[in-house]
Write a structure and sequence with these properties.
Helix content: over 70%
Order of helices and strands: HHHHHHHHH
CATH superfamily: Tetracycline Repressor, domain 2
Distance between the termini: 37 Å
Number of strands: 0
Number of helices: 9
Number of domains: 1
CATH class: Mainly Alpha
Length: 190
């Protein structure tokens, strides 16, 4: 997430990110003050202001970083496979691995106090990538069906991810990817 930054900047931003994620588990972002966050992560307010203007700008930064990660994961996963089953499994596996690696942030953003605008951005990303990856299916005759398909896949995946988070990440990313791919490709009767 913070690969191109100085080590001290990375440490500070990581602390702020984890702190905000922890506070988002307890309350809405609008109920979190800079004072709450800086006390929670034990840094000065001036240090916070050296990096971010306010709590929403920190949240936007976190969402942008995670969104860019997902964009790369989906783009790379679809570019490297041609078979539908393989492509879906590959992308879903890497998404689950990334969610597990960033579990504090993921569970906060997708959880009850998360930002629905972020979820909508992910939906638009997925819909766009599916249309680019599957251009022969994205003609005028199929656009309505593709729109429903994207909505079905995305809401199903968000539901599966929320359940995985709710149960404490008990299954491995590989198990979740296999389960998700099976449900997406063959439904509940497979």
């Amino acid at each position: 997430m913070f690969d191109n930054l100085d080590r001290r900047v990375r440490k500070t931003r990581y602390a702020l990110m984890i702190g905000l994620a922890a506070l988002l588990h307890e309350r809405e972002v609008t109920d979190i003050s800079i004072k709450d966050l800086t006390e929670y992560v034990d840094i000065n307010r001036s240090t916070f202001y050296a990096h971010f203007k306010d709590i929403p700008s920190l949240l936007n930064y976190i969402e942008d970083e995670l969104f860019n990660d997902f964009n790369k994961i989906i783009t790379d996963g679809l570019a490297n496979t041609e078979e539908v089953d393989d492509a879906i499994y590959t992308v879903v596996l890497v998404v689950f691995e990334h969610l597990e690696k960033n579990r504090e942030v993921a569970s906060a953003l997708i959880g009850p106090h998360g930002d629905m605008a972020f979820i909508h951005r992910l939906y638009d990303l997925m819909r766009t990538r599916i249309a680019q990856w599957w251009p022969e299916e994205n003609n005028e005759d199929n656009q309505e069906m593709n729109s429903y398909f994207s909505a079905f896949v995305f809401t199903g995946m968000i539901g599966i991810i929320k359940e995985w988070i709710r149960t404490g990440y008990k299954k491995t990313p590989m198990q979740m990817a296999m389960l998700s791919t099976e449900l997406l490709m063959h439904g509940i009767y497979s």
